[in-house]
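For the sake of transparency, this paper describes our internal protein records without simplification. Such a record has a labelled line for the sequence and another for the backbone structure tokens. Nothing more is needed to write down the fold, since each code stands for a local backbone conformation. For reference, a complete record is included directly beneath this paragraph.
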Amino acid sequence: MFQIGPSLREARTRRGLSPADVHKAVRIRERYLTALEEERWEMLPGDAYTKGFLRTYAEFLGLDGQLYVDEYNSRVAVHEDEPLVPEALKKRGGRTTSILFRTLGAVLVLGAAIAGLAAWRHGGTQRPHVAAAEAAPKVTHAAPKKTQAAAGAKPAAAAVVPKPTFTVIRAVRDRSWLSVRVGGPAGREIFRGTLEPGHALKYGLAKAIWVRMGRPLALDVRIGKTPVGNLPSGPSNVLLTRNGARS
């Protein structure tokens, strides 16, 4: 178990970001970001939105989003799959619950019997005809098969939704100064500072990510699971896209 809010705040401040910077990058309102950092769950719009905000915020900060969602589920989320049994019955044990279900079953059987008797009295001699009509097989008009094949039309192919690609920049051998911008060298800067060993940044590649690296050889840079090779020894720039990296 760990503190969700304080760890998010610490990761944000360590990267030199304000809530406004995060809002511009991930499009989550600042008041929701503050609610996450202060663990004021009542200010958030329900469990589904809260889990989505947690995952997006954590992954933007280079953290494990699923770890935060799991911690929220274990400590905070409302579990809607619990049986709706009154608290008083829970305290009295399984015997009371069994008696309750038997009583409900008896009421349902009695109600069905009364309904059947009323239908028999009102139906009179016409009931056999009704039963016969209900038992008669239903006639359905099946649509002609292979209409598309006869017309020479090809079945529509299922749309393939590409999986989002991420880039991960991790300091593995030493610290390195970084400047990260969206789109290119003139794009919006989303990170500026020193990346310490063992720390990482993770960004989606819906748009290209431009990175200015002070010590490239101290870093492990990947697009998805593919490492970016041939990094120079001195300060340099690299543009990371879905299709690869280029200087």
User: Anything to note?
Assistant: Strands lie at 166-171, 176-182, 189-195, 200-204, 209-213, 219-223, 226-227, 236-241, 244-246. Residues 80-94, 124-137, 147-151 have pLDDT under 50 and may be disordered. The chain has three domains: 4-75, 93-133, 166-246.
